[in-house]
């Protein structure tokens, strides 16, 4: 009986979400601007962000810096609509984020995380784990991996791109970060959210990826959450969280 009631409860929540999404609109005329106005967020009854206001500008690398627990990753998750704010407003391209259909919003974002997760799939399947990946050519795939210093490592693996990721065939944390940056390149989204995504890279790879971010920022909005002094030098502007 309890199980049945729980199923009915989940069904009600799902239907409510679907109806809510129908009332939303697609992201129209995306220009890459992102604005937070007096944003407050509680998680598990704990105040995480209080009346935060930040403008992230297109064609720039926008930095977010602050000590651990200051809310850097939380802000990226809010922009990506992982959480819903308690008060304030978030706008993407001058549209209220709560009025934009979730799928339409995700079509404009690529999120590069600090601790990416790989699935028990082939390397190529892990890289191409996004909507629209069926259009990616083999040449584009190799170019993206070369751009992040990953192609040589993949070529040394037992079956190259077809190597299955498992307990026997593992990637280092740095290689995993390179993989998701290669995925981000192939996604080609106008807004890129980066969360401490270069901390485990060797210096040669880090410098190459810094240059890559600089090139991408000429046509995209990049938001970089970091505590690194070297990352700080990469940013065009920096927003400090207390």
Q: Which helices and strands occur, and which strands form pairs?
A:
Layout: H1 2-22, E1 34-43, E2 46-56, E3 61-65, H2 72-79, E4 87-92, E5 95-96, H3 102-106, E6 109-112, H4 123-127, H5 138-147, H6 151-155, H7 173-187, E7 191-195, H8 203-216, E8 221-225, H9 229-234, E9 237-240
Parallel strand pairs: 3-8, 3-9, 6-7, 7-8
Antiparallel strand pairs: 1-2, 1-4, 4-5
Description of the molecule:
Helices cover 37% and strands 21% of the residues. It has 242 residues and is an alpha/beta fold. α8 (203-216) links the parallel β7 and β8. The N and C termini lie far apart (49 Å). Residues 1-6 and 12-17 have low confidence and may be disordered.
Query: How many H/I helices?
Result: 9
Element-level helix/strand string: HEEEHEEHEHHHHEHEHE
| Most strands sheet | 5 strands, parallel
Strand order of the largest sheet: 6-7-8-3-9
- Proportion of strand residues: 15-25%
CATH superfamily of the domain at 27-108 and 226-242: P-loop containing nucleotide triphosphate hydrolases
CATH class of the domain at 27-108 and 226-242: Alpha Beta
Structural class: alpha/beta
Measured between the Cα atoms of the first and last residue, the distance is 49 Å
Low-confidence stretches: 1-6, 12-17
Counting DSSP E segments of at least 2 residues, the number of strands comes to 9
Question: What's the Cα radius of gyration?
Answer: 19 Å
Q: What's the CATH architecture of the domain at 27-108 and 226-242?
A: 3-Layer(aba) Sandwich
C-alpha geometry: globular
Helix content: 25-40%
- The CATH topology of the domain at 27-108 and 226-242: Rossmann fold
The average pLDDT is: 89
């Amino acid at each position: 009986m309890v199980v049945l009631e729980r199923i009915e409860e989940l069904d009600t929540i799902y239907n409510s979400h679907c109806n809510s999404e129908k009332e939303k609109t697609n992201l129209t005329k995306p220009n890459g601007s992102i604005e937070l106005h007096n944003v407050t967020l509680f998680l598990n009854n704990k105040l995480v962000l209080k009346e935060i206001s930040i403008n992230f500008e297109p064609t720039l690398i926008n930095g977010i810096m602050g000590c651990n627990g200051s809310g850097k990753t939380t802000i990226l998750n809010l922009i990506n609509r992982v959480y819903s704010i308690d008060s304030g407003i978030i706008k993407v391209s001058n549209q209220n984020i709560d009025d934009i259909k979730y799928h339409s919003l995700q079509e404009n974002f690529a999120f590069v995380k600090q601790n990416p997760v790989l699935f028990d799939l082939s390397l190529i399947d892990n890289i191409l784990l996004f909507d629209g990946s069926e259009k990616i050519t083999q040449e584009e795939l190799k170019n993206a991996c070369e751009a992040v210093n990953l192609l040589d490592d993949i070529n040394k693996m037992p079956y190259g791109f077809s190597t299955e990721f498992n307990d026997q065939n593992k990637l280092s944390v740095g290689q995993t970060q390179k993989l998701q940056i290669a995925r981000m390149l192939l996604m080609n989204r106008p807004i890129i959210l980066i969360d401490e995504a270069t901390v485990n890279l060797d210096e040669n790879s880090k410098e190459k990826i810094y240059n890559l971010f600089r090139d991408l920022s000429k046509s995209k909005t990049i938001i970089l959450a970091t505590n690194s002094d070297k990352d700080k030098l990469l940013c065009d502007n920096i927003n400090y969280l207390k």
